[in-house]
Amino acid sequence: MSFLDSYLRQSKAVLIHLLSKKQTQRIPFKLHGLPVSTAFHPSRSAFFISTKKNIRVYDLLNQKLMKKLETGVREVSSIAIHPGGDNLIVGSRDGKLCWFDMDLSSQPYRVLNCHSKDINKVAFHRSYPLFASSSDDCTAYVFHGMVYSDLNQNPLIVPLEILRGHASENGRGVMDCKFHPRQPWLFTAGADSVIKLYCH
User: In the record, what terms sit under GO molecular function (predicted)?
Assistant: First the structure.
């Protein structure tokens, strides 16, 4: 973590950069706790901010709170928004992975106890029904996560693979994971200074 990142977290500041105007501004909302992770909605002017316990969804145009999600975990580590925009996943410092269907409830739809140590990163694939988590237990989990257009049908979540191959370094494991934008491939970055590509 850089000095700037450390300063922003301690000062509870979240900055939004307007690329078209080459401007930077603080978000016009009061934060309730230290910010941990942020994400934009893929198609609407909604902005997700997670603190250690909760996730708040703000309407950037009307500058108001849209929704508050209760995670129930010890500490949130990362969030990822489904490409459809109505579902998100949350990784936690106690190894739990929570799936939220925001049309259904402000509580998790599913809680998966998949990792034995901290989850460092969660990610959705842009076009395939896949999502993943990476952890300090030196594994990355890949799941099938189908979201249906029929609102009466709940998302289908199925574990697919446990990926291993990184070595532990000072108690840290797989620090990050990212899907290829077009192929069903997963990149992982470990504390062992190795980047791996997993393709089925």
Answer: ribonucleoprotein complex binding
Q: What's the CATH number of domain 75-198, 2.130.10.10, 3.30.1240.10, 3.40.1190.20, 2.30.30.100?
A: 2.130.10.10
pTM: 0.87
- Cα separation, 164 vs 167, whole angstroms: 9
Q: Produce one character per residue of 158-189: b if its CB has 16 or more CB atoms within 10 Å, e if not.
A: eeebebeebeeeeebbbbebbbeeeeebbbbb
Per the structure block, which two tokens stand in for 148?
Answer: 């249906």
The rounded average pLDDT for each run of 10 residues, N- to C-terminus, in the chain (200 residues) is 48 78 80 86 92 91 91 94 95 95 92 95 96 97 93 90 94 96 96 93
Q: Is 165 helix (H, G, I), strand (E, B) or coil?
A: coil
What pLDDT sits at residue 4? 44
Q: Where are the domains of the chain?
A: 75-198
- What pLDDT does residue 10 have? 53
Q: Is 104 helix (H, G, I), strand (E, B) or coil?
A: coil
